[in-house]
Amino acid sequence: MIIKRPLGEKGQIVIPKDIRRMLGLQSGENVVFEVRSDDVRIKKEEDVKEFLKKFFSIARSERNLTLKDLKKIEEESYDLP
Predict the structure, then answer these.
(1) Is residue 16 within 8 Å of 2, Cβ to Cβ?
(2) Considering only the top CATH level, what class is 1-45?
(3) Which of 18, 46, 66, 67 is 20 to 30 Å from 6 by CA-CA measure?
(4) How far apart are CA 48 and CA 56, in angstroms?
(5) How much of the chain, in percent, has pLDDT values that exceed 90?
(6) What confidence tens digit (pLDDT) does each residue in 53-63 have?
(7) Angle, vertex CA 30, rays to CA 24 and CA 32, nearest 5
């Protein structure tokens, strides 16, 4: 999905309603901006408790996780359906 929005005078952009609905974003919630080269990802901030629960359930099932494995798990946790 590609949606264009103009950049306002103060550098603000309105996140389209369809995208907010897809991400389950509510007014007042935090979003995370991830910059990679010349790309920016906007992600819903993950609940720390849920992240840790998911992380430790994976860590228990796979004892020999490498840093590369952990980075892959983290990236996959933000993929959109």
Answers:
(1) no
(2) mainly beta
(3) 46
(4) 12
(5) 21
(6) 777 776 565 56
(7) 95
DSSP secondary structure letters along 33-49: EEEETTEEEEEEPPPHH
Q: Across the strands, what pairs with 41?
A: 34
Cβ pair 16, 5 in contact under 8 A: yes
Domain residue ranges in the chain: 1-45, 46-81
Q: How far apart are CA 7 and CA 41, in angstroms?
A: 16
List, in sequence order, every residue forming a beta bridge with 32; answer none if it has no partner.
Answer: 43
Contacts of 64 (CB under 8 A, 6+ apart): none
C-alpha 8/C-alpha 12 separation (Å) is: 5
Residues forming a β-bridge with 42: 33
